[in-house]
Amino acid sequence: IYFPFHKALGLRTGLHKDASAEYHALTTLMWWGRLFPVSVRRMRFSLGQLHVISPAPVQSKIRHVQDDMKDFLPSIPETQKDHVGIRGLFLETSNKPSEWTIFWVYGGAFLSGDAAGNSGPADYIGRACGMDVFLPEFRLAPEYRVDDFVWDVCLAYRWLCQRRDPSKILFLGISSG
Asked: pTM for the full model?
């Protein structure tokens, strides 16, 4: 009843009569989206919930990481003097460190997303590959600039290279990540 209803409705709403029933249903459902415009707040909330729709709950041991890198940097750009720490999540898939590590940079158009929200999909991939996963937190627009994002991710990579073999780190990103 759903598709025939939309097909009939589509003929009366100006949509082309030869369009598929799926197209008619989609345009009817998408119409309501204009009542809820996309905002940075809504994007951040939505992408922060990715772990909820992950195929499986996080099964790995989650270690919250927060470390100061000031002593390990030969020089710090003037614009980054106040941002020399790293934060993130380390998902350990077993009791001993895996040979390879995934460096997971989450997406969100540089506006949204977070390590916690990506922990479900990252854990799913990490466990399937038998690899630990590190998800760095980074600053987001519009509060910060893209070079701040790049600085945070590079700093987190440098931190990870001090703890794992750099030749055995696999980069993985979603969308803008």
From this structure: 0.77
